[in-house]
Amino acid sequence: MRRAVISALVLAALSLGACSHGQRERQPGQAFLDSQIPSGLAPQYYPQDGFVWAGYRAGDLPEARYGVASPPLNPHAEVLILADADYPAETYFELTRQLLAADYGVWLFEPPGQGGAGRYLLQGNTIHTPDRHDAEKAATSLIRDVIHPTPQRPLYLIGGGYSAIEALTLAKDLKGPAYAGFAAFNPYLGGVIAPGGLWHREDALPGYWGSIAQSWQMQNPDLRLRMKSERWRKEMGKAFAALNAPRLSLSGKDAPVYLFEPQTADATQMRAAKSLCAHVANCQMRASQGEAAFGAEWLDAFKG
Questions:
Q1: 283: which residues sit within 8 A by CB, 6+ positions away?
Q2: Least confident span in 92-106, 144-158, 247-261
């Protein structure tokens, strides 16, 4: 009898410990809201006048990080840019300026565990998530509670790289006249994700956005997440696999979806991109000249 009681107490303690660990892992870390403009950076990469950062907490998650700016006139639509895990959201200030000039209101978004967003407990210097649905939960909650898209002022979503998978996932979930279109630029196309290494000032990521990101990270140590946790990599693989589930039935009311694949992509990449696009209703492929050209290409696609 005594042994049974002790066993029950041990099991109860283990159960409580597991529950407490799950709660602690999601304790509400705060977003970083005071990034400094790097010296020597050209003004086109600065935040627009009036741009502000804020934190947003969805349920028990750490704070997501978002920023917003509006054009001088009332915007005719809103654009939500989902930052790629490889770059801090500051990387997209040039794109933000291009969209503001076309009279869109623009929002930048980082989910918990990446960039300057709030971190999970014991996350350390890695990009991390315990569950791929956390990013989706944070984004959809922000849209519902803060952005409030309407048919009169609808919302477009943009994602690049890893966040392109999030944008395509949301294209399946967010329906109705309040959503005007979805864009995925150079999406992650499955396969092994390298864990990467710690940030170093002499080791910028390749490409146009990589050099911009490096400048912001050099000036702001809080933005230097580069290495990806094993759990994050597994969850990203699950997110990609989920997109390859049976395609949703087409509907004339569904918003258009554009997948922008760089012209430099090889035949294998193009086949993978076409296969991914085929699993999302109303998805069309577009060739892109690269990161520097993407803003103009997006405006052309959606006839800004």
A1: 168, 171, 257, 258, 259, 277
A2: 247-261
